[in-house]
Protein 1
Amino acid sequence: MHRPKGLTRHWLAAQFAVALIVALHAALPALARVEIAADDTSRRPGNAAHSGHNPDLPDPELVDSLIIWIGKNTDYNIAAARADPPRLSFSNVGEVIVYEGRSVMVADDLRGAYDLPGRHIYLVLPWYSGDPLDVARLLHEIAHDVQYSNRPWPCPARAEWEAYKLQEAWLAERGIPADFNWIWIHLRSRCRARPHP
């Protein structure tokens, strides 16, 4: 079949783009509910709120307000999460945490993690309750707790898109752009294909 010259270039570019996306998707880490920043906004150098601050864990009122917000912005039943919120702790880059029954080292691009079996949220330091971007990270992890208590998911990664959209909406209400890399999030939100036997 003869293709006009311009069409051939576009067709080849499209084929290359598809191959690149497939290769990137295959290279993504298998950490299903470990959140790696889809932007660079949560580690802002020189932010006084983050410099040398040893934060307290988020207070129960903040956690409850985020659960209520999720309930108002979804059809999810939040009663169980409000009655028994997930456990919270901080972790540092380089620290080893128990995640999904195995030991995982906290990488420098990790922002938070939700461990489903333990209903445990890990927030990576620095974290400050007065910073809306940090609170949005907490909201994202709480969203996973609410998501998994309300319905089954075909794979853990599938819940990511919705959690990021909730995080984006919460930030937008405060006039803060999320600046997420939606292509990267889309790739992370897909169930991994199992090899055909």
Protein 2
Amino acid sequence: ERMPTALLLRAQAQAILLKFAHAHQDLQRILDTDPEHRQALKMLRQLSQKQKETQQRDKTLAKEVCKWVETSTAAAQEPPPAKPKQQPNESAAKDDLSSKLWSYFTCSTLE
């Protein structure tokens, strides 16, 4: 009489901790000695239902995490916006102006 009660309590604790395999083993030990044990049969049905719900919740969470990771990874792989390219004439004109200014200031300081 004490053994089934202890196993039921332990199975219940295991189920709360989401250790379904251990809870199932304890319930199966009770049913091995008494196949008609009402509480063990009831708890076994509840355990199966809770296990299915947990698996479904985990599956949904895993999908959400994968989607988040894909979005984050895609955003990280996008190249930074390109800088507008200068026209070749603009670049040459700027370089020419810079060199003229440099020449002017260096030559005027030498005189």
